[in-house]
TrEMBL record:
Gene3D superfamilies: Diaminopimelate Epimerase, Chain A, domain 1. Keywords: Isomerase. Belongs to the proline racemase family. It comes from the Bacteria. One of its GO terms (molecular function) is 4-hydroxyproline epimerase activity. It is an enzyme of class 5 (isomerase). The keyword Isomerase applies. This is 4-hydroxyproline epimerase. InterPro entries: Pro_racemase_fam. It catalyses: trans-4-hydroxy-L-proline = cis-4-hydroxy-D-proline. The keyword Isomerase applies.
Amino acid sequence: MRNSFFCIDAHTCGNPVRLVAGGGPLLPHAPISERREIFVRDHDWVRKALMFEPRGHDIMSGSIIYPAYRPDCDFAVLFIEVSGCLPMCGAGTIGTVTAAIEEGLIKPRETGRVAIETPAGRVDVTYEEKDGYVDSVRLHNVASYLHDADVAVDVPGIGRLRVDISYGGNYYAVVEPQENWSGLDGMSASDIVACSQRLRHALAGVCNPVHPDDARISGVHHAIWCDRPVNDVSDGRCAVFYGEKAIDRSPGGTGTSARMAQLHGKGRLTVGSSYRHESLIGTIFEGRVEAEANIGPYRGILPSIGGWARVIGHNTIFVDDRDPLAHGFQIR
């Protein structure tokens, strides 16, 4: 049997976004958080086939659009990437909105504004459109917060680090320059990946954050290494790690949200402040602390992230059962 998937390929500030416009599995009409569980249980081969090699690569990221269950949302999204079916993805949201509007997959109820149902909650998005193209997108992300500060962890090859565990749609280990880590200068991409893998493994035995409103969101699967900016217009620079070997080419939407929540939680970023976040390749997300928020017993923020995406092509992908590599592979 051969399955066909029609995809719109795009990138958000350098990070790939593959929007599955046709061929995605039909799922029951239920909250997208429940549909996510069904997808992971019964259809995760779709994610692996489209994200892993030979049809994808180590940093591949994508999404599938579904009808919204919530009446206050325009559509729902499942985020698929090499690391799994995520609760939320900021770069994926910016790329998905851009591609879906430019290619006519969705028609917003109100021009310049859409509400998206994600497994992490409702995400409001505004966008600027000119001559049929989406120039920029600002997503108003889910409530984000600092979960744990100054967690001590011994990382092989690095030594003892103090990291902050922060939530921005996914949980992150936030690392700033300190005695045993001097910063991003001089680190290669492979260095960042190796350090991140060791850090995540070490943290597994130290902490396991669970979202106070949804126990299905748990664990530290991402890391963000933070440093001083290179670009004069930026406030900070970062390398976001996810999956097994992936470094986000954008500054990371949930990563930037987690970073701002961490800074706010430590009294270093106030409501109304902006935070221009620079990626390893120099692209920038403009974050902003819109308001404070309560997440269970935690005091956090409502962040927004501004960025841009570009559609780069149409892609019809075949997944043929005769192919011994039909469902993809990863080299570890």
